[in-house]
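We close this part of the discussion by returning to an individual protein. Part of our work consisted of pairing the sequence of a single chain with a tokenised description of its backbone. What the numbers capture is local backbone geometry rather than side-chain detail. The amino acid sequence and the backbone structure tokens for this protein are reproduced below.
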Amino acid sequence: MAAPMGISTYADLSFTTRQDAAEFLVERAMPYISELANPCLMDLGCGTGAVAMAAMRARSDLRTIALDISSANVRSAREKAAAAGLGNRMTAVCEDYMRWKGEKVDLIISDGVLHLVSSTDAALAARLSSDLRRGGILLATMPIVSLGNTL
């Protein structure tokens, strides 16, 4: 059965990000913000917060926003950050990205999630752009081979 209009199929599910994948993405992303003091990173579609956690471990002055549509994921991300002593640097938010109202960030990392956002490509691109500070970076992966991610 399809989800009602405006309600994501993924809101009631839980996903875990592989730690090795999270560390790989953070390793690739950190050079882009190396010159910034006190940067802010968004882990978009955070799952259990592995990207946010790896980033906070890599930079002691970095703050993160861990955003996911699944309350189970957000709860898990909060718990893991608190257990690691990093909870004061993570804002974990359960919200549909296109409805989220928050601050601009220096870096957005999204691992295999953007194709699941309920939006047109143009609206999603505009939203991502508007959520980045001047000079901000989007690092995103796609889980499938398609024309859009092989150009």
Remarks:
- The longest helix spans residues 71-83.
